[in-house]
Structure formats: structure tokens, C-alpha cells
Amino acid sequence: MALRKGQAAVEYLIILAVVIIIALVVVGVLGGFPSLTRGVNEKESALYWQGSEIAIQKFYFTSNTAANMSNLVLRNNKNFDIRLNLQAGALQMTDAGAQFQNVTLYCKTDSDCTGNSTSLSPGDAKNFKFDIGAGTLISGCLSKGDTFSRKVTLNYQDAEGNAYTFVGTMALVATCQ
Questions:
Q1: Percentage helix, strand, coil for the chain under 3-state DSSP, each rounded to 5
Q2: Residues 11 and 60 occupy one common structural domain
């Protein structure tokens, strides 16, 4: 009698183990474990950055060495006005080796900037250009089709001059144009 109870328990455990293994295989095949199977893709990156406190709505990275100016559109998702000091590292990008580079932003149109800074009201967006040339730590667009992936930090101030730093938890990912 004891042998039959032990046999029933072992059969139950074997069936349970088979069901769990099948469930794990199905979840893995359907992409249920994204952090184990792949990195962040462009679509996930774009969704994250559009919802961040200082949103990066659109971004374009170029491999053209003659005019290596890349573009991005920043939007203020905060409920107060912000000011970006463009020449003092408002934007920082970190490469895979954890080295960061202060990126100098330039307003796409001169009327968007006052000297070396620009202001964004809540919900406002402005188009900026910047250089990610081959001589910098953040170079990554060596040829068209390369994937550009960098961690981004944005530094800004409110109207009273209080400084804020937003460190993105997800990398900014793009394909070089």
C-alpha cells in the first residue's frame, strides 16, 4: 500500500514538472522574457522616451561625416516651465563603457534660443541638433544602418533657477541614417 502512495506522488510530480516546462517554453517562444532574450529595441525606446518628464519625441542620428549633425525634439512633460542651458551639458550620453559625453545642443532655428539657453513651457516642444562626430566618446553612427544605443541624462532648471537632473532608465536606441 505504501508503495502505491509513493508511486502516485512521483507520478503527480512528474506530470507537474512536464506542465511547468511546457508553460515556460510557450512563454519564452511568445517573448514573455524580453530581458533574457534581447535588448531594448527602437520601438520600446521611443515609447519610453515619449513618456519621460523631458520627452524625446523624435530623434535622428546621422552617419554623414561631412555634416554629422543629428536631431532630436525635446518636449516638456513637467507641469512648470523649464530652461535648458545649451552650452553646459544639458544633454549627456553614456556609452556602454560608462563614459559620458556632454553634448552641446543647438536650436534648429535661432528664434528658439536666447543666447545659450532656451525655455520650454509645459507641453511645448523644440527641435534641436547636435554633433555626435567620430572624435567624441559618444560616436556610434560610423555607417548607415548601425544601431545607436546610449543612456541619456538631461539637466534643466525651473523658473526660480532650481536645478534638476533626469536620468533615463532605458537607453535611447536608433538606427543611424
A1: 25, 35, 40
A2: no
The CA distance from 177 to 175, in Å, is 6
Number of independent structural domains in the chain:
2
Phi and psi (nearest 5°) for 153? -125, 135
Strands (E), 86-146: 91-94, 100-103, 105-107, 117-120, 125-131
**One pLDDT digit (tens) per residue for the chain, 177 residues:** 555 667 888 889 999 999 999 988 887 777 665 555 455 677 888 888 888 888 888 777 765 555 556 777 888 888 999 888 876 567 777 766 555 566 767 777 666 676 677 888 898 888 877 765 544 444 556 667 777 777 888 888 888 888 888 888 888 887 777
